[in-house]
Design brief:
The protein is of the alpha+beta class and 412 residues long. The protein folds into two domains: 3-57 and 267-409, no CATH class; 70-252, no CATH class. The chain contains 14 helices and eleven strands. It has a six-stranded mixed β-barrel with strand order 2-3-9-6-8-7. The two termini are 30 Å apart.
């Protein structure tokens, strides 16, 4: 241990002639502690919300979409699925057709996004088959009033808009053909509601209706054609890498891949901006504490003028004197950071484990504030706090190092 750190610790622990200096030092520690704890808690809550949103999106969508440029459908999708399924990290693959239309019940009409899915493989890429809150996941034919009608699954809020609250109703789909002109009649098909789905993402549950791939190909006049192929991975973080491998494997143009991040770029980008914006704003709390460090160190320099002069007359260098007060600022920062990190971790752990802060599930779709602690965030916050305390210590330390020994002890 050098004399600089030894003296810095003695100065930190020693009683002050002016008790006000000690109070400012303690206030600085408390300020750093509150700032670090607040940052840990807020960033963990942002991580929790981001993870919750991502999970709900993955419940409805796959990690990668393989499609053609523009709006062209894929005809050779069976061969493509067999080829892509051999790649590492591919956990599920399923074809889908997506078209917009209008759905009518006995009481209401609503715009709808129809997803025609393969009932056998759709469960490997999303959680629609496991999201049924009423009825069952059955997209096959059913005899209703002497007629054979295909099954359809409605999103929860779409069903409520249609005044349908349980399975068993008959609905009618109206689809405008893509090649239609102003005089072309819509395609019309009746379906039997076999179930109501709740993915947990409102934007999907309010517009989505699911039919079988066979029914969709007949309704949309797309024999042996699909809109795109959905692919799920064993690790969503590998989506960008695997997407490039898929494009190389299928030969590139006219095929193109879209990852989960590209499909929801604006949403994830906005969440990232919010997270780091909150980080910068809450750093102001630590900056306030850093200003307290400046004032307390300046007052300590004034109080220790005689000791500084004696040290310099005994051979201490200006650099050594500067390091003494830099160390003292770092000590304040480290104590405040350690306490704040401990408080932040404890609060986040209690919220994760016991859900102390509850949320109304009918508003937020979750019943407690989500938390997800990340070691990188805690380390980054700790580093930022200590750096700010170090920077705040530079000016007082510099002023102390410029004191002349003779001037410092002349009047002592």
């Amino acid at each position: 241990m050098g004399y600089e750190s030894f003296i810095a610790k003695r100065y930190f622990r020693a009683k002050r002639k002016t008790g006000f200096i000690s109070i400012i030092t303690y206030v600085s520690i408390i300020g750093v502690m509150i700032g670090v704890a607040a940052l840990d808690i807020v960033l963990s809550s942002f991580n929790g919300f981001e993870d919750e949103v991502r999970t709900r999106l993955f419940n409805a969508d796959a990690h990668i979409q393989l499609r053609k440029y523009y709006v062209d459908g894929i005809q050779e999708y069976h061969q493509l699925m067999d080829t892509v399924s051999t790649l590492p990290h591919v956990a599920g693959i399923s074809p889908v057709i997506v078209r917009e239309g209008v759905i009518r019940s006995r009481d209401n009409n609503q715009p709808v996004v129809v997803r025609a899915v393969d009932p056998v493989t759709v469960g490997t890429v999303n959680d629609v088959p496991r999201s049924i809150v009423n009825g069952e996941f059955n997209l096959g034919m059913k005899t209703v009033e002497g007629r054979e009608l295909p099954g359809i699954i409605l999103g929860r809020y779409l069903a409520e808009s249609l005044m349908i609250f349980s399975a068993g109703e008959i609905v009618t789909l109206f689809i405008i053909p893509q090649e239609a002109n102003i005089f072309s009649p819509p395609r019309v098909k009746q379906f039997y509601v076999t179930g109501i789905s709740e993915i947990g993402f409102y934007e999907y549950d309010k517009v989505m209706a699911y039919v079988s791939l066979e029914s969709g190909q007949k309704l949309f006049d797309m024999p042996n054609v699909v809109s795109w192929i959905e692919i799920k991975l064993d690790d969503y973080n590998l989506a960008g890498k695997v997407a490039l491998e898929i494009e190389k494997m299928v030969g590139g143009y006219p095929f193109v891949t879209k990852t989960w991040f590209e499909l929801n770029r604006s949403l994830y980008s906005w969440m990232t901006i919010e997270k780091w914006g909150a980080f910068l704003i809450l750093c102001l709390i630590i900056m306030v504490a850093a200003f307290n460090i400046v004032s307390s160190l300046i007052m300590i320099v004034m109080e220790k003028t005689r000791e500084i002069g004696i040290l310099k007359s005994m051979g201490a260098t200006s650099r050594g004197i500067m390091q003494i007060f830099l160390f003292e600022g770092i000590i304040v920062g480290m104590i405040g950071t350690a306490l704040g990190s401990a408080i932040g971790f404890t609060v986040c752990y209690l919220q994760q484990t016991f859900g102390l802060l509850r949320l109304p599930p009918d508003v937020y779709l979750i019943d407690k504030l989500p938390m997800k602690m990340q070691a990188f965030d805690f380390l980054m916050i700790a580093a930022a706090a200590i750096i700010l305390c170090l920077v705040a210590s530079v000016y007082p330390a510099y002023k102390a190092s410029r004191l002349e020994p003779v001037e410092a002890i002349r009047y002592e």
